[in-house]
Amino acid sequence: MKRLLYIFTCLGLLSMSVPVQAASEKETKEEKDALKACAQMVLSGLRKVADVRDARFLGKVQEDTALCRGGQKALQFRNTPWVDWSNYWGTGDMSTRLPGLIFKDAPGKRGVRGALMDLEFQRIELIKFNLFENSGTYKEYVLGRDGVGGPALKRWDAMRLPASSPFFAAVGGEGQQVCKGDLTRARTLTGICNDVVNPAMGSAGQLFARNVEFEATFPDLSSDQLARNRHGDRLGLLKPDPQVISRKLFTRPQSNPDACREGFGMPGMPVDANCDYKKAPFFNVLAAYWIQFMTHDWFSHMDEGHNAQEYMKVGCESQKVNGVETPLTEEDAKRLGCRPDDRVDKGFVANDAAPEKFTSGSREYMTRAPKVMANNNTAWWDASQIYGYDERSQKRVKRDPADRAKLLLVTNRGKPGYLPVFDANDPISPQWTGQETAAFPDNWTIGLSFLHTVFTREHNAFVDEFRKLAAKKPNDDSGLRNPADPKKKIAYKDVTPDELFECARLVVAAEIAKIHTTEWTPQLLYDEPLYAAMNANWNGLLGSGGGDVSKVLNDIVTKNFGKSDDVKKATSWYSVFASGPGIFGLGSKVRGYDMTKPEFLNGGVNHFGSPFNFPEEFVTVYRLHPLLPDLIEYRELDKDPNKIASKIPIIETFEAKATPMMDERGAANWGLSLGRQRLGLLTLQNHPQFLQNITLSRLDSPTKKLDLAALDLIRDREHGVPRFNEFRRQYGLRQLTSFDDFADAHLPADSPEKAEQLKMTALLREVYGQHVCDASKVITDAQKNEDGTPINDCLGKPNGTTVDNIEDVDTVVGWLAEYTRPHGYAISETQFVVFILNASRRLFSDRFFTSSFRPEFYTTLGVEWVNHNGPGGEVMEKGEPNGHKQPVSPFKRVLLRTVPELAPELSNVVNVFDPWNRDRGSYYTLEWKPRPGAEQDPAFSKP
Fold first, then answer.
1. How confident is the model over 802-811, as a mean pLDDT?
2. What is the distance between the alpha carbons of residues 300 and 304, in angstroms, rounded to a whole number?
3. What does the pLDDT look like over 302-326, one tens digit per residue?
4. For the purposes of burial, counting CB atoms within 10 Å of the CB of 380, is it exposed (0-12), middle (13-18) or buried (19 or more)?
5. Which residues contact 612 (CB under 8 A, 6 or more apart)?
6. What DSSP line would sit under 802-857, residue for residue?
7. pLDDT of the residue at 120
């Protein structure tokens, strides 16, 4: 009961400020039945957080709970593999808002709160069961240390700086290492000293972690009996053939191939060029480039645009014919469009020696995965793609010689504010010659050019605003402090250019994190539960105006649960209570804050017993290439925004080609073009054709070409990502038992959409095949059947049955095949569950987003800038979009400052990642119809 009270208190606070609406006169039988079920649900009590992995929640609720929250629809789909909450009332568009008996909006509120409850249960269990660290700390995580349970540990020897580090002596050398002084004032270049007692955590070169059991990784190489039972001898790095998978399952079919030319468009870039693609109605191309901008900040397996020097084949060798793996003939390869002579550099491996093992209870554990790879970027959300992540990349960062607090911008066609171009002395790879400057210049495109330009301008806008304040009141307190003399006020006039540069970096990084959390993600996952959940992650369930209650919950988290050696308090309960005040700024409002002491600097962070770095599985779910169209619908702001002026192949904006594209056409026109065009659906047969046929001059191969869609599969296999079904089981989602489970059970059996989905499931069967099952083979220990028996090779079917090779499906293929998704989801529920865990962790673990989000580090202006989305206080959006009074979104404010020419276009926009020409309509509608003024836009002339 106490557990029930606490969770309902935290989650129920969401609706404290919502006025009660008038009672409904329509008393439906469904609502009566639902209310009875609600009473029974309360009497039954809340389910417990699982004690063991195979008793997890799986996103599936009891019958009374489903009926209470979603009526018959929620009951109807309980037996499908997919999570229940997406069938609750209020979790879709207006059609899901059933009128209540007593209060009109009661069912919708129950449904949304129930969805938030389910999501919190998932997060708690993900934190409890899905943290596997590769750097040598996992044994302590399982066994504990010095009487403290592993999940409550907060310091690890594996996270010490090595003797080779230039900062080794500064943090304590061979003794207990603690970051001090200048190393704690701002984000460091390589990411060290974010956690002041674990200096190496999250820094460049640290090993990628895992979210799945080590035994489940590298299924094609595994000595684990369960993995062998799952897959037999059917898997290999090139088996099933990645190019064949790409050509059969990923290729976009074209109604007029001559107008597309394999994604390379038509000469002269005419408007009548066309590459068909399946389009998302509620997400724009700017959002596709945004996530590339983010991943360049978060992770990289490559070093300076290269992998290891050894080259390997990439497939186009065999396919299944009547279930038998058969070599491809030359005619087969030509018909498919694949290339047997393609080659690519192998991925780097940091360590592939056999891992040590240890025993706990009756079980033997690996200390790490069979192979481990290094993240050559910093894992922090620190805008390293702009500012650098090592000494080499820092040399590519251009600071303004006239004002060292600023980043360098140059004049373009008589207009200032554009990125300079690399010069001959910059440390770059040959393929980057002629590009605009960036710390992370790989895979450069016009979208990255636009976003780097915008946030470089934003950095300088902050500096300009600070300079205005310094000129107006030079002797006033800036809020900034030096740990060498923390009580001494630093006046505006005394802030050095280097100090101001670092403050601007902190502000820009926090803005980017806020945009991603509260703007990009809620548009990616366009429904009410996720709007509430992501804003709660940032601001808390109480919102930004939580007042005294928010402060109380902040203290409960940081002074009680954050410091606790008790495993439950330090993990599950910390997560729940942090939902009240929100993660951002957690621990920053503690009285008596002392920036010289680790307990204050680290006071708001929690790593849940496992040092933070991104897991390989997180990289996997960001393989989002179908988001990109082949052609950009280019528009001109100063002419007619409703007119498409040309169709520009994305390939013509790659690398150095982006420079003249930006130079000649300007940031405002590119913002308009990327903002209005819909991006591609994440689904099968929707990869850009140009990416399957791209020429990369750096490749040492006969063709110099590569199928990047096939390479996605190869890299996941190289990194040991479990195949789709085991991936789901490891993350606490229900398994599929055949390819037919991918088809959306909500659709009428005779609908064209259902027929198309069944056609694709048949194609999956053709590509991956079937086998005669053996019920004696147990295939997993991550879950059990509902009756408590082990899951075996037959997946619930009789022994000797011919079953689909569902266990062999590559994870990327699997989540692209998920036709059943919550309303408004551009991604699958499998991808989303990875976000639930890692989106929270990267905030929880970063002190600059928690206990060091203070004026001492950001300046007073910096704190206000991040909190209010810019200078001058909070600005409210017009009306109540989707029923919410909300401030003008952070990215909209950024664009209004940095590309002011876009102001007339943005006046109609609520979320910058929603197509700018779309009518946002009523409650979370997915309709594709024009907003006022965009009726003549040709984007609306086709479905």
1. 98
2. 9
3. 999 889 999 999 999 999 998 899 9
4. buried
5. 195, 201, 202, 209, 379, 841, 842, 845, 846
6. EEE-GGGS-HHHHHHT-----TTBSS-HHHHHHHHHHHHHHHHT-GGGTTT-SHHH
7. 86
